[in-house]
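EI: anyone free to look at a 179-residue chain?
SC: sure, send it
EI:
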Amino acid sequence: MRLRAKESDVAGAAMMAARCHPLALVVTHDLYAFDPLVFDALAREVEAKLIRIASEDVDTDDLASMFSALAIEARQPRSGEGEPWHDDSLHAVQSHGGSFTDHHLAHYAGWTILVARDVSDGNWAAQARLGVYRDLASWIEGRHPGENEQLVSGELLRTKEESLAAMKRQLDETRSSDG
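SC: here you go
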């Protein structure tokens, strides 16, 4: 297994982690202390180990030994890799503000459904994108005009479960009219 290191600033860390699926996120103690909850959540979301180091001037031999141990662990499959989640399950995902919060993803018939709560009225909305995405960053990155089909529900509903069910019905209707 060949290991590579990629460097990122704080602003781009979440997108890079979603794209690269790293074995580890390496941050200095000072940077971690700035916002530990964000770094812990990011590491959990991408299923990476969070390694805190004293400074950026770390001994490369020390890092190499840590990464060797991680490479051995990496030979084991990550949880959920390869197969979509069960069709009726919503998975809470990290969200980063905006007019919607409490983001959840679900997989259904080859689509990934995003369900989120509108902060202004508390109602839930749903969108679906063709393909299997496991986190919000990759779902957002999956938006390329002409490459991925997307459906947006016009309904705002009282619960995330109602919103998921409405989007699944819309997908079923779309599939039956296509076939």
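EI: Residues 91-178 form one domain.
SC: 👍
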